[in-house]
Amino acid sequence: MFNFFKNDKADRPADVKGIRYELLQFIKQELQKAEGGEGGNIRGLNLYINAPAADKSLYEAAVHTEEPGVFKDEVQRIADDYAVNLPQNWQLEVIIDEELPAEAIRAKNVDAAFFIKTASNFIKQSASAYIRVLGGETEQKEYHIQSGKDKINIGRDKKAQADDGFFRNNHIAFPSDAADEANKYVSRQHAHIEWSDEAGKFYIYADEGGIPPRNKIKIRSEKSEDVIKLSSTHIGHQLQEGDQIILGQSAVLEFSYQPAGHE
């Protein structure tokens, strides 16, 4: 006889393998809606996990938090099986320990939710971060920045005149009259940081004074130690925790989501 009072916990996985299986089945179910080549408009996939503290380590192992590319490859195989045709540069973001957004589809058997991002369909997020000055001289040693529509300009002098004759305000300014030699190699309009609603991340872009053959911008990732050079004003770099940014020769900034002393 069917038990109408069956406890839902009986259907919930209790180990890493079971959780991974349920997560992938859940993602497969949602991706099937884009079956048959309809995945070209997808910009990224967000998997939200909000599990009890006792299960957190199981979920982290299930999605390979130490090697995020492994879980992404498994999702890619699902997409290939159903001819979803995800774009080549699609992103998978796994967000742990946040409230499950109302816009995301919730799973039944695991503590997770899933959201498919497109150019016109994304979850608006907010964040704050900190820019620390490791090399060069500025008014502050640390700047608190927040998500929004405003750009954070970086350059030499607080009010700087550009080549077109107009002035711009540099929010992170390296004064020309400072004793530190690093300031001399920072352009008046070197770079800016802006928030992307679509990606839910901060990006840094080179401005006219920060691209070759003028003063350059180099970024080193804390995790990979790869060095990235910005050579266009149109292509930015998504800032990650611990990224170091060299402006000119030796002015150095560091990006973090935590204030100094709280890493």
Quick overview of this protein structure:
The protein has helices at 16-31, 56-62, 68-81, and strands at residues 42-49, 91-96, 105-106, 112-118, 128-135, 142-146, 152-156, 159-161, 167-169, 172-174, 191-196, 201-206, 217-220, 227-230, 237-238, 244-247, 251-256. It is an alpha+beta fold and 263 residues long.
N→C terminal distance: 56 Å
Q: Tell me the fraction of residues in β-strands, as a range.
A: 25-35%
State the name of the first-level CATH class of the largest domain. Answer: Mainly Beta
The CATH level-2 architecture of the largest domain is identified as Sandwich
Radius of gyration: 22 Å
Spatial order of the strands in the main sheet? 6-5-17-16-13-14
- Tally of DSSP β-strands: 17
CATH topology name of the largest domain = Tumour Suppressor Smad4
Considering DSSP H and I runs of 4 or more, what fraction of the residues is helical? 10-25%
Number of domains: 2
Low-confidence stretches: 1-7
Overall mean pLDDT: 87
Structural class: alpha+beta
Largest sheet: 6 strands, antiparallel
Q: How many helical stretches? A: 3
Q: Outline, from the CA principal axes?
A: elongated
The secondary-structure element order is: HEHHEEEEEEEEEEEEEEEE
